[in-house]
Amino acid sequence: MLFTADAHPGLRSGAITLTFRAWKRPQAKAGGRHRVAGVGTLVVDDVRTVAPADITDDEARAAGAADRAALLARLRDTESVYRIAFHLDDGPPPPPPDEDDVRRRLARLPWAPEVLRLIRDHPATVSTTLAAAVGRERMAFKADVRRLKALGLTESLEVGYRLTPLGERIAADY
């Protein structure tokens, strides 16, 4: 699951324990583990579909929204959404990525230098614009960015992406 950087403090503190997603099919399952860079590992406790009209103010706040109206504005006009309950794994934090290992993995991804340069040069730019700049379909481009995020190189913003400090160091070589 992707979370923007502004949600990270709430995820780390345990204030955010729900998320609502307008997915066509579930992208999470109970018991699943999702690493969030800069936060740790989230463990999914429950996934169910709900009608947006049934979401309470308390649930909206647990999802990091000011209130139900603010959350519904983000969900747009969908008939049902997935309600995902989770908790932060309280085990030791994962070790930081090994830079040499990340560089070896990147050597097998011929598209990576171009995407890293693009994000470095155009942070906080909507993915549709970035994908068009490299002649890619938006969803395929976003999948590549998620691969870079899994390596600890990018972070999602409210709009677009930015490089992490490790991503900046590695992108400097391109």
Strand content: 15-25%
* pLDDT averaged over residues: 92
Instruction: Tell me the total number of β-strands.
Output: 6
In DSSP terms (H or I, runs of 4 or more residues), the helix count works out at 8
CATH topology of the largest domain: Sulfate adenylyltransferase
Please provide the ordered H/E string of secondary-structure elements.
HEEEHHEHHHHEEH
Main sheet overview = 4 strands, antiparallel
Shape: globular
Q: What is the level-2 CATH architecture name of the largest domain?
A: Roll
How much is the radius of gyration in Å?
A: 17 Å
CATH class of the largest domain, named Alpha Beta
How many domains? The number is 2
**In the CATH hierarchy, what is the superfamily of the largest domain?**
Sulfate adenylyltransferase
Distance between the termini: 29 Å
Which helices and strands, and how do they pair?
Layout: H1 8-13, E1 18-21, E2 33-36, E3 40-50, H2 57-62, H3 68-75, E4 81-88, H4 99-107, H5 112-121, H6 127-133, H7 138-150, E5 154-156, E6 161-163, H8 165-171
Antiparallel strand pairs: 1-4, 2-3, 3-4, 5-6
